[in-house]
Write a sequence for this structure.
């Protein structure tokens, strides 16, 4: 278990803030042990919350060209047939995973292949389970084309708390199944759009593990 690179700045700012806070309390309340102890307990608790959010666990991906791996930790909140309007402009099977602030927020490539499409969309910060979050919120759209020609689209969607989406892919780039393609800070959601004949292997309320759990099988 290590700390993800995206946490460096946040952890540094948090450390400085807590150091200043504790120094100020010690200076202005030198004889009030209770206030100082409460501040210390709060500081430790807050620091642990920040550290756990940016944790980077070791994941082992079961590489298989027919499998679609969960791109993130979280809870499956949507499994449905829908119309994808940005890239495919047609019917697809959608699986959505909601990430709470306590989940690991690293995003993993669900399949191997070439990035055939990428676009960043600025937008709103509706709660991630809002019906319009997929189209109105800040988001990225990534499409990876497998060697067999199958394309899978996955979309990072910011939530009410997530105010920064990070991505590490670009069009034309070759990606490996289970490798990192991005990170979303402080609560969010990922939508995956699959071919209609894909076999879905998860159910609503399931809690897949990003980079490890097989969520679908391609025909």
């Amino acid at each position: 278990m290590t700390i993800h690179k995206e946490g460096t700045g946040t952890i540094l700012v948090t450390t400085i803030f807590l150091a200043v806070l504790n120094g100020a309390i010690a200076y202005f309340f030198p004889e009030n042990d209770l206030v100082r102890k409460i501040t210390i307990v709060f500081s430790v608790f807050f620091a642990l919350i920040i550290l756990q959010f940016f944790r980077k666990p070791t994941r082992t991906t079961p590489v298989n060209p027919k499998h679609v791996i969960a791109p993130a930790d979280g809870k499956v909140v949507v499994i449905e047939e829908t119309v994808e309007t940005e890239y495919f402009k047609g019917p697809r099977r959608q699986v959505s995973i909601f990430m709470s602030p306590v989940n690991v927020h690293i995003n993993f490539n669900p399949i191997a292949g070439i990035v055939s499409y990428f676009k960043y969309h600025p937008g709103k910060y509706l709660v991630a389970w809002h019906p319009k979050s997929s189209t109105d919120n800040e988001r990225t759209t990534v499409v990876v084309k497998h060697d067999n020609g199958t394309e899978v689209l996955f979309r990072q969607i910011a939530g009410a708390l997530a105010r920064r989406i990070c991505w590490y892919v670009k069009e034309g780039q070759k990606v490996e199944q289970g490798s990192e393609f991005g990170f979303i800070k402080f609560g969010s959601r990922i939508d995956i759009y699959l071919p209609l004949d894909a076999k879905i292997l998860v159910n609503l309320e399931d809690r897949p593990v990003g980079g490890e759990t097989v969520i679908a099988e391609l025909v």
The radius of gyration is 20 Å. The chain has three helices and 15 strands. The chain has a mean pLDDT of 90. The first strand starts at residue 2 and ends at 3.
